[in-house]
Amino acid sequence: QILPRLYHENVIDHYNNPRNVGSFDKNDPNVGTGLVGAPACGDVMKLQIKIDDESGKIVDACFKTFGCGSAIASSSVATEWVKGKSMEEVVTIKNTEIAKHLALPPVKLHCSMLAEDAIKAAVKDVEAKRAKLNGSSNAAP
Ligand code: FES
Ligand code: FES
């Protein structure tokens, strides 16, 4: 549609039909929120993950991105890829893998970087919350 033809069909699909757009309650102890910005263009991405209490696996993910089509598509792919995985696994997702999946041109690499950073930030956030919770519940009186 409005995207130039150099974009791969995966990016157009994720741009036109982004998966998992939305928000979770950021105060939920099992929700991790990653909020990152790209200094180069000012675009902002919020990616959230929801963790299963017992297994520690990511059961759900969502995002809101104020940015270009490539950033939106990258967040959409990222939310699809993290579901069902462990936190250890998802922090190894590389922006280059996302960029390759979407066939992003080199000038759009930083857009996929936002997604990698947002995943890592979301994991950090939920790990910190869980550590805090465990810490306080185990605290001696
Ligand atoms: Fe959606 Fe691959 S086309 S994650
Ligand atoms: Fe900056 Fe895409 S142009 S995130």
Automatic annotation (TrEMBL):
GO terms for cellular component: mitochondrial matrix. It is found in: Mitochondrion matrix. Its cofactor is [2Fe-2S] cluster. One of its GO terms (molecular function) is iron ion binding. Coiled coil: none annotated. Keywords: 2Fe-2S, Iron, Iron-sulfur, Metal-binding, Mitochondrion, Transit peptide. Its main location: mitochondrion. GO terms for biological process: iron-sulfur cluster assembly. Residues 7-131 form the NIF system FeS cluster assembly NifU N-terminal domain. Scaffold protein for the de novo synthesis of iron-sulfur (Fe-S) clusters within mitochondria, which is required for maturation of both mitochondrial and cytoplasmic [2Fe-2S] and [4Fe-4S] proteins. Belongs to the NifU family. This is Iron-sulfur cluster assembly protein. The chain holds residues 23 to 163 of 170 of the full protein.
